[in-house]
Fold N-acetyltransferase domain-containing protein.
Amino acid sequence: SSTDPLTLAESCRQYSCKDGSTATVKHFTANSLSSKLLKWTLDLLTRNMRSMYKKSSWGWKPKEKKAEMTEDAARFLIAFLDDTPVAFSHFRFDMDYSHEVVYCYEIQLEEHVRTLGLGRHLMTTLEIFAAALNLDKIVLTVFKHNPEGIGFFRKIGYNVDESSPEENEGKSYFILSKPTKLRLKGPDSFFSQKKLIIHTTSGIYCLMNSRMPRSQHKFLYFPRYVTTTH
């Protein structure tokens, strides 16, 4: 489905940065992402991560990375400052070892915006998606030789996932995750019955903007529940 999950988190469409500027966050699917924006995401990823990939067992394979980022399941949150893209997350609604998850494939920021809180805001938005859709957790992969990235994710509550390779396996990455923490007051079959209280990286978020049953939200946003015909 191409439905915009930001309808579950309307307040996340705008973010007041630490320097006083205001960022606008937009959602794109692989199909709705313009060639110009796709080129920018790939360029930013290359600038930020090429050396990291080269040091890993995976190596740097730009054609494979582009193919991954243009798959139908790929979704993007892109933050703009004055209509200029400055940060993005590539994510998917996915199954991970029998868990229904938001899988964060990438979170990349331009160097000049890395102290504005945008990374935390994008991760908070993914956490709200996971909680609103009643998914189990947010999952991501981080290189062991990326201490800055590890430190960021640790700071916002991510820990080594049960699926992460053991140390003796010699892998160059950790799999980190953060369980979805939510508390529903009142019948949980409808958001509109009572406030949905979601505990995220940025504190407590109240979601009250939907009357649709949670089962229907899953149908709209989660591939497992989408029936296709051929």
In short: Residues 183-220, 222-230 have pLDDT under 50 and may be disordered. The CA atoms of residues 93 and 102 lie 5 Å apart.
